[in-house]
Structure formats: C-alpha cells, structure tokens
Amino acid sequence: MTSQIAVIGLGLFGSAVATTLAEQGHHVLGIDIDEKAASALMRVLSEVVTVTEVNEAILQSLSITEYDAVVIGITDIEASLTIAQMLRDLGVTHIVCKAKSALHGKILQRIGVDRVIYPERDMGIRVAQNLVAKSITGSIVLSAQQHIVTAPAPASCIGHPVGTIQWQTETKISVLAIQRGAEVIAHPVATFVMNEGDMLVLLGTSADIATLLK
C-alpha cells in the first residue's frame, strides 16, 4: 500500500528516510530551507520544496494534513519543537521526530509526537549488539532497554522445546516468532522444538540477548 509521507529537513537523517521511502514506492514530499540539500533529491522524491522558513502558512499551502505521516529530521532542538507543535495544532495524523537527547525526546512526547527517534543512540546499540552477538541479522530498538532482534537459533537451543529453555524466566527474553524456511510460526507454544536453521525473532534486553546468542 502506497503512503504519502512528508519529510521536513533533508540532512543525513531526513534524506535517508526520504530516499528509502521513495525507493519503496511511497509518495514522498521533501522540505528544506537549504536549496542544495533539496536539489540533490529532486530526481529521487515525488516532490521537493525549498522554503525560506517552516511556518503554519507554508505547511497549510503544502496540504500537510493530507499526508499519512510527517517526519521531522531537523537537528536544531528549538526548530524541531516548534514545527512539531505546529503540525499537532494543524491536526497532522502521525508525527515522527528525531531527538538529540532524552530531554528533547520527553518534550516532543509531551507535545504529542507519535514516535521519537534517537538515531545516534539506536545506532550505538546496534553496533554494540553486533560486536557481542555477531549472529544478529537485524534489530529494532524499542527503547534503551527493550530490543527486537532476529538471529539464527543458537546451538544450545537446537532440539529443545521453547518452554524448557525458559527464556522468559531466566534471561527475560520473549520468543515472538520462529521462521522455518518459508513458514513463520508466531508466538510458538512451549512444546515447539527448535531445529537447526530456524530464525528466531526475540524481544529482550541487549545483555540478555547477548547471553543467549554468545
């Protein structure tokens, strides 16, 4: 399903988000005050607009409320907070914003931002995970404590039922799903036995996941 998404701020973070969404076939509007940054994405995004400033009048002229989501990729804290408040006041359905710090993120959440992203923190967590658990093939950082990762079932799990491994009580890890070839088993029962080649989707902390996959 194709979505309409606007990205405000086309720096490293914003341009990466916008380009990826465009490659996936979504309609992406890029907005920036830097003409050079905007011009670089002219042939990549559905629409690119250079503005002198981001204010309510300009956002309304771009029919911003018609977009399924708006991503704020601006580095300046004051500007990102101001734009987030404007978008909320205008009634934008879904707002995603990059945060520079925990305090910045808390203020964004109080404004009503639907999702706060911490790019530097999240990347640091992923690098650390891959250093201590090289089998991890993908990860989603839900918070500083909770992560979802995909990884091959470790040798210690092969031939054992999910329940007897007691992930939930000993290492506080939840098994969300198991992929076996083309089949995906969501929320496997305690008696489900791991086979070699199974891919696990796990929810837990970095430390617990690293302990399981070491």
Task: Name a few traits of the molecule.
single chain, alpha/beta, Rossmann fold, Alpha-Beta Plaits, 6-stranded parallel sheet, 9 helices, 36% helix, elongated
- The CATH superfamily label of the largest domain reads NAD(P)-binding Rossmann-like Domain
The CATH topology of the largest domain, please?
A: Rossmann fold
Rg calc: 21 Å
Can you tell me the overall shape?
elongated
Q: Return the average pLDDT rounded to an integer.
A: 84
Largest sheet: 6 strands, parallel
Strands, count? 11
Classified by CATH, the class of the largest domain is Alpha Beta
SSE class: alpha/beta
Overall description:
The chain is an alpha/beta fold. The protein has 2 domains: 4-117, Rossmann fold (3-Layer(aba) Sandwich), CATH 3.40.50; 121-213, Regulator of K+ conductance, C-terminal domain (Alpha-Beta Plaits), CATH 3.30.70. The protein is built from 9 helices and 11 strands. The chain has helices at 12-23, 35-39, 56-61, 77-90, 102-111, 119-132, 162-165, 167-171, 206-213, and strands spanning 4-8, 27-32, 47-50, 69-72, 95-98, 115-117, 138-141, 147-152, 174-180, 183-186, 199-204. The strands form 2 sheets. The chain has a 6-stranded parallel β-sheet with strand order 3-2-1-4-5-6, with helices on both faces. Helix 4 runs parallel beside helix 5. The protein is elongated, with a radius of gyration of 21 Å. It starts with a strand and ends with a helix.
